[in-house]
Amino acid sequence: MDFSFIVIILQLIFLEGILSIDNAAVLGAMVTPLSDHEPIPWPKALAGFGHAMNKILGPQRTAALKVGLIGAYAGRGIMLVAASYVIQNPWLKLVGAAYLIKLALDDLSAHGASGSDEDGDRPVKERTFWATVLAVELMDLAFSLDNVVAAVSLSKKLWVVMLGVAIGIVMMRFAASLFSKVVEKAPVLKTAAYILVLNIGVELLIEDLGHIEIGDWTRFGISIATILLALAYERFKFMKFFRPLLIWLSQGFALINGIITWIFAPIKGIFTLVSKLFLRQRATPSVAE
Predict the structure, then answer these.
(1) Biggest CA pair distance of the chain
(2) Could you report the per-residue pLDDT of 170-208, keeping only the tens digit for each?
(3) Which of 36, 67, 180, 210 gets the most CB atoms within 10 Å of its CB?
(4) CA separation for the pair 155, 13 (Å, rounded)
């Protein structure tokens, strides 16, 4: 019997761990603002169902990671089944890169907008529980694009790839839970997590548009270096010398983010208008009755 698949599965777990360090860091940072004690705020229509699910999912922060775990499996599964389509259509990776960059800019551009030296004065956008869950699911989908393409390159057997990736996802979720606790003790890591998101988005653009291949170990090194530099910035006073530069970069991110928002504002407006007209048409028959 050929047991070579075991070696491939171990490689896939290791690969998933390397590629998902950014994912774990970002997800941990995203769920940190959620309460670690309060239950999920279910809609009134789902109150009865929610009461039973609270015992399984736990408080908001833990629940967001558990729901995200389900989304991660679903996202990886979809991407694995459609792996050949993903590889043949690089524009999908561009969409994922664009989402990651926009998500990073939404967070990073707020930090230097005022030019204040006090971290406590930073205007930070807080998400509700369900908005956080949605952001986690979209993040999983965006990260799945790159991870699955790398995983499929190791084996042509779908079940082997899915098993290796599945185990890797569980390990990544434990890492995300641990990271969320670490972020409470070192808040600078939340900013570092979104810098990681920006790094990955830019790396995807460089690969697809510049046709420059960035190795897994190179990405891993960039991620580790980003986290270590963030910790050094918080711990060592001499690193504050770079604060004016960081504020300048943050203000630049705010300008870029504003331009992107301005460009897509008409599309968003048209979509909102069409949605309102559609809902109004659906409501008209009931009013006539």
Answers:
(1) 73
(2) 776 677 777 777 777 888 888 887 888 788 788 878 887
(3) 180
(4) 13
